[in-house]
Recover the amino acids of this structure.
């Protein structure tokens, strides 16, 4: 059973904790215990006479059965504690503030004042009483001695419980009494000494004794008489008032010898003065004087002159008595109870003691609730035997009806003495007046109710020593007694209420009420149904931590905006429950909260079309359903691609997998490779997405290796693979290259050693191409020089390779070829040249102006090797241009064009732009400038006059137009011829 106090906060109960024993050191540690509170947040504080104490510790609260217990300790000065200073522990809590005072109640060690009395009865029994007044501590022992020996044959002895009183400084003192009764026959003839011995806790003791003289009955008839006259002569007033002392004289006239002894005795029978055989058998007068003081005389005293004679059976006795007028003394009345043990059902005896009164004219009456009580009394009357004045004592004992005593009836001991009425009352209420009353209601947990077959039980725990009446109310209506059973112990009343499950689910409030005459009615009401709930947000999803384990399917029902209420969660497959009730404890803190419950899906639900949901059953009536997820058991899929990056750096491969529980592995030529990074996420539909990256060094990437990404699902025993490599990501446009072989420069043709050929490759990513030189069909490796590719703004690259060929082979008309081939493909691109095919022809050039650009046309040259550059004012090289590849015409001669883009910053009036053409046969320079008044020139609309400086001379404008015309005809002819050959 899960125990909850109530739906509302519960105020703590405080208990002071004080040190046991005196201890050592200058400081004393006090404690404060707070129990049975909720919620857990509370604050302790300490003060002494209103002044705050800061040297204390507050420990975190501990929880048991949904209730909390907290402890705090404080250190105080020992001198303050032993001086009975009052310290206060206070607790601040949302359910209410509580405080408790504490101070040193250590008992002092003090022996009592003892007083011994004997009964006035003269029958077969003789009684003695011993009163011990104001002793501490409470532990004690009273023992009776007869003539200094322990009494074993006593009729009975009654020792009353100790009665406590508190002095002005807070010290608690105790008083008690012992009553002894013995057979009169056990007393020896003459004087018997009875001693009351009081022993305290530390074995310290004190005694008080009295002498009991058994008086023989007087001789009535036939008793012999001695011829002796006794005369008592009192002290003179002169001696008493002037000398403060005097003498009492016993004058004995002996008429018939022989007197054996003359003596004085006091009231207790003690021999004070004597003379033996005073006459020695003769007749004479004997004077025996006894000294007394003025104080003894003024207070009143009695002395006895006793004469023992050989002829007398009983001694002669004559008293001297100084009487004073006796005053009436009212009794002291006390009333206390005596219990056999501490249980509720043990019998109780009430003892009313009247002490120190005179005369002996009173009786005791008992009342219950101010009505006469006819019950059997046990009375004992006592009388003092010391001092001049007699005082009396009386005790009356009754055994009240336990039912009346337990319910709080008030019993009164009443007497009247000398027209003064005295009474003392007692009830069980006073005995436990300081006992705190608390009611604690334990409700069955939400889980217990939902799992119960027919009935549930609620418990009311009433902390009280009184036999209180406990009743229940359900929704303010009384509960029949057949639904309640009750048990009690010394400190609690435990009442159990049995309710059907159906009735409990509709119950709103439950009240437990305790009633007794000793306290005002107290009750505790708890809210069973709880507060109105706010609809929570419910979402079903797959549990990411469990996905990483890979061997099961765990669904998570995530609940947010959850109010403080009991609930349970169930999981459904196609709207049918597949889980049991998963209970959730309500949150401790107020306000909305969140929680989750998980469920492992059995394998027979692993179908691609299964629809999963979860439901939150809050309280006994509210049901909230989550979203649904389906189609999570799907085969894995894979995507593999290359992340764009610098060609010269490492390459990053990204593999993405989707499915139920996909796992990614990387392979290179059947060797598994560890991934660089791996990320896993779960989509709202429950499918898992996994992404892995593999960083491949540039050197390894260029080796044309194949990299494989495998996405597998061990749960479904499925897998998918995809491959990637340099060759698979290279597009067809990157596989094509243009190859041009240029003959040796003219100046090298006269060399007899070797001549240098140039192979020009134009394309993309030229580092992925290999270059092979052949001379006369034979592959050549030595003497080959390869430069790094040069990138251009249009995205293309050019690469040059130089190869030295012997002049002998060249002049022998051997064919020199250059082959360009991509490493991923078998197709080769070849260009070749030989001395027989080379007929050097000088180029012709013209410079045209178009819209925003200048065009330099070069044609009619051979071989194809040529270079075009642009300059501004003949010094600054311009780079924003694009030059086409040389094009071979039907006549075997080549043409080429270069376009220079004009900008406002360099196309200014007076600025000179130069197109420089470099060929093996000639170098040309064509200039153009912007006139001061000319704004725009259309392409081919206006042809600017250009000065052409060359080694052979200047061409005219007419020749330029003629060359342009023939160039266009040759281009058209070349295109037509190519089409015809293709067909």
């Amino acid at each position: 059973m899960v125990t909850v106090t109530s739906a509302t906060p519960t105020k703590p109960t405080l208990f002071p904790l004080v040190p046991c024993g005196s201890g050592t050191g200058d400081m004393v540690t006090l404690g404060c215990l707070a129990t049975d509170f909720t919620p857990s947040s509370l604050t302790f504080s300490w003060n002494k006479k209103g002044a705050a104490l800061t040297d204390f510790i507050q420990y975190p609260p501990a929880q048991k059965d949904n209730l909390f217990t907290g402890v705090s300790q404080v250190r105080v000065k020992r001198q303050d504690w032993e001086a009975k200073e009052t310290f206060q522990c206070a607790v601040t809590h949302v359910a209410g503030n509580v405080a408790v005072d504490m101070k040193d109640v250590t008992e002092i060690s003090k022996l009592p004042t003892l007083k011994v009395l004997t009964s006035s009865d003269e029958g077969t029994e003789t009684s003695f009483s011993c009163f011990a007044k104001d002793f501490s501590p409470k532990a004690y022992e009273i023992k009776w001695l007869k003539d200094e020996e322990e009494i074993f044959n006593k009729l009975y002895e009654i020792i009353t419980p100790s009665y406590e009183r508190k002095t002005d400084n807070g010290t608690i003192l105790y008083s008690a009494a012992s009553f002894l009764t013995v057979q009169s026959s056990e007393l020896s003839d003459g004087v018997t000494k009875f001693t009351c011995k009081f022993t305290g806790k530390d074995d310290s003791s004190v005694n008080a004794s009295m002498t009991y003289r058994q008086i023989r009955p007087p001789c009535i008839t036939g008793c012999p008489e001695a011829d002796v006259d006794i005369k008592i002569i009192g002290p003179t007033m002169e001696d008493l008032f002037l000398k403060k002392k005097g003498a009492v004289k016993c004058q004995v006239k002996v008429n018939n010898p022989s007197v054996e002894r003359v003596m004085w005795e006091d009231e207790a029978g003690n021999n004070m003065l004597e003379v033996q055989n005073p006459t020695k058998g003769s007749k004479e007068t004997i004077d025996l004087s006894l000294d007394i003081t003025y104080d003894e005389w003024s207070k009143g005293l009695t002395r006895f002159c006793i004469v023992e004679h050989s002829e007398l059976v009983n001694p002669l006795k004559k008293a001297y008595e100084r009487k004073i007028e006796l005053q009436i003394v009212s009794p002291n009345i006390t009333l206390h109870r005596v219990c056999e043990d501490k249980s509720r059902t043990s019998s109780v005896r009430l003892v009313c003691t009247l002490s120190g009164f005179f005369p002996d004219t009173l009786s005791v009456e008992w009342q219950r609730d101010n009505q006469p009580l006819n019950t059997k009394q046990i009375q004992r009357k006592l009388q003092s035997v010391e001092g001049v004045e007699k005082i009396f004592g009386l005790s009356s004992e009754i055994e009240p009806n336990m039912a009346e005593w337990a319910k709080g009836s008030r019993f009164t001991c009443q007497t009247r003495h000398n027209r003064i009425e005295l009474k003392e009352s007692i009830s069980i209420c006073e005995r436990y007046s300081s006992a705190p009353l608390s009611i604690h209601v334990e409700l069955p947990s939400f889980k217990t109710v939902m799992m119960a077959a027919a009935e549930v039980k609620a418990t009311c725990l009433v902390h009280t020593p009184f036999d209180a009446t406990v009743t229940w109310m359900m929704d303010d209506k009384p509960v029949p007694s057949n639904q309640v059973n009750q048990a009690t112990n010394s400190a609690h009343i435990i009442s159990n209420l049995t309710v059907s499950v159906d009735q409990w689910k509709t119950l709103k409030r439950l009240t437990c009420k305790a009633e007794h005459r000793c306290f005002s009615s107290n009750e505790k009401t708890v809210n069973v149904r709880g507060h109105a709930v706010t609809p929570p947000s419910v979402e079903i999803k797959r549990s990411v931590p469990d996905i990483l384990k890979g061997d099961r399917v765990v669904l998570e029902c995530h609940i947010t905006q959850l109010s403080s209420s009991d609930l349970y969660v169930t999981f459904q497959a196609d709207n049918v429950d597949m889980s049991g009730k998963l209970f959730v404890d309500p949150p401790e803190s107020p306000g909305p909260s969140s929680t989750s419950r998980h469920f492992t899906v059995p394998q027979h639900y692993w179908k691609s079309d299964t629809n999963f949901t979860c439901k939150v059953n809050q309280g006994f009536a509210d049901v909230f359903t989550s979203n649904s997820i389906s189609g999570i058991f799907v085969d894995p899929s894979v995507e593999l691609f290359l992340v764009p990056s610098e060609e010269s750096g490492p390459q990053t491969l990204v593999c993405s997998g989707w499915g139920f529980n996909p796992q990614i592995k990387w392979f290179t030529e059947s060797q598994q490779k560890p991934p660089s990074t791996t990320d896993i996420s779960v989509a709202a539909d429950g499918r898992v997405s996994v992404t892995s990256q593999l960083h491949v060094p540039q050197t390894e990437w260029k080796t044309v290796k194949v990299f494989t990404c495998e996405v597998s699902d061990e749960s479904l025993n499925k897998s998918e693979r995809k491959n990637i490599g340099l060759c698979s990501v290279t597009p067809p446009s990157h596989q094509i290259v243009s190859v041009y072989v240029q003959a040796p420069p003219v100046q090298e043709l006269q060399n007899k050693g070797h001549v240098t050929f140039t192979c020009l490759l134009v394309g993309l990513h030229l580092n992925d191409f290999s270059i092979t030189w052949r001379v006369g069909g034979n592959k050549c490796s030595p003497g080959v020089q390869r430069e790094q590719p040069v990138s251009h703004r249009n995205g293309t690259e050019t690469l040059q390779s130089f190869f030295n060929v012997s002049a002998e082979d060249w002049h022998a008309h051997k064919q020199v070829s250059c082959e360009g081939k991509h490493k991923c493909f078998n197709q080769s691109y070849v260009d070749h040249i030989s001395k027989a095919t080379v007929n050097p022809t000088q180029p012709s050039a013209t410079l045209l102006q178009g819209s925003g650009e200048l065009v330099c046309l070069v044609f009619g040259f051979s071989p194809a090797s040529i270079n075009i550059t642009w300059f501004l004012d003949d010094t600054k090289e311009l780079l924003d241009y694009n030059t086409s590849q040389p094009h071979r015409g039907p006549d075997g001669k080549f043409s080429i064009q270069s376009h220079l883009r004009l900008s406002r910053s360099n196309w200014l009036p007076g600025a000179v732009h130069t197109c420089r053409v470099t060929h093996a046969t000639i170098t040309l320079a064509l200039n153009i400038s912007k006139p001061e008044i000319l704004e725009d020139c259309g392409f081919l609309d206006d042809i600017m006059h250009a000065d052409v400086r060359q080694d052979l001379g200047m061409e005219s404008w007419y020749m330029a137009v003629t060359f342009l015309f023939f160039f266009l005809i040759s281009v058209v002819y070349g295109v037509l011829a190519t089409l015809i050959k293709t067909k």
Observations:
- Residues 184 and 803 are 156 Å apart (CA to CA).
- The radius of gyration is 65 Å.
- Residues 1-6, 933-958 have pLDDT under 50 and may be disordered.
- The longest strand covers residues 172-183.
